[in-house]
Amino acid sequence: MCRSRRERHAESRIPISNDRRPTFASDLNILNAPNSYVEHVFARNSSNQPIHYWSFAACNPCANSNAVQRWAGENLTTNYPNCSECRIFGNLAAINGGDNTTQHAFGTNANIELIQYWWDPWFSWHGENLTARTNIGPAFKIVSDLAAVNDPWVRNPKLATGQKGQNVVGRSANGELIHYYWYPQTSWNAENPTQTAYKNGDIHFSDSLGCCEQRLTPVCLCEKRQ
């Protein structure tokens, strides 16, 4: 059987021992791997560092009950220390990339700035403070849990075949919707739809948001502030 690069990488990891098991202090996010037979679990630990577990089978499909199912774990903050402000102080939102070759885990840091950890098969994991980008800035801080969703499966005529945009939403301190969005041509940007599109209505939010992928457009839901 031909294994993916991520599966071969997982096989080379040192097994998780009892004295250094990464443990969780937040809600869990579970994903199937992009383009391979691997499951992934993301959460943060008590030191506000994202933890990543993944499991892979030595066979798929497995013909008998003796097949080996293996787990590996890593600390994304300490193993890939390229982002000093990338500690997470809330729950994570994890998602596969729209082209199904990458993985992304989003959270907010102590300054309620949006942090992205992302994996690609060429350079492994990276971390970045998206709010700190010069084209975004402190007006787009998020105080709630996050929701992440890819663009719908219907092809966007502005993108190349197989490309999809990515969306992350949350609530500001004023109860307004904050929307971060990524496209391959323009990278990450952010907007406040409450201020730009709905200036005349009371549609502020009092809770976290949830998103689902519909046929033509992502739909995000939340509780209206009373």
Describe the structure.
- The N terminus and C terminus are likely disordered.
- The strands form four sheets. The chain has a four-stranded antiparallel beta sheet with strand order 1-2-3-4. It has a four-stranded antiparallel beta sheet with strand order 5-6-7-8, with no helix packed on it.
- The chain folds into two domains: 129 residues, no CATH class; 90 residues, no CATH class.
- Helices cover 7% and strands 35% of the residues.
- The chain is mostly beta strands.
- The longest helix has 7 residues.
| Strand percentage | 25-35%
Oligomer: single chain
Instruction: State mean pLDDT (0 to 100 scale).
Output: 77
SSE topology string:
HEEEEHEEEEEEEEHEE
Helix/strand class:
mainly beta
Structural shape: globular
pLDDT < 50 stretches? 1-19, 211-226
Reading side by side through the largest sheet, how are the strands ordered? Answer: 1-2-3-4
Strand count, sense and barrel status of the largest sheet are: 4 strands, antiparallel
The overall strand count is: 14
Radius of gyration: 19 Å
**Total of domains:** 2
Number of helices: 3
For the terminal residues, how far apart are their CA atoms?
A: 57 Å
In short:
The chain has about 230 residues and is mainly beta. The chain has helices spanning about 5-10, 75-80, 195, and strands at about 30, 40-45, 50-55, 70-75, 95, 105-110, 115-120, 125-130, 145-150, 165-170, 175-185, 185-190, 210-215, 220.
Features:
226 residues; mainly beta; 2 domains; 3 helices; globular; disordered C terminus
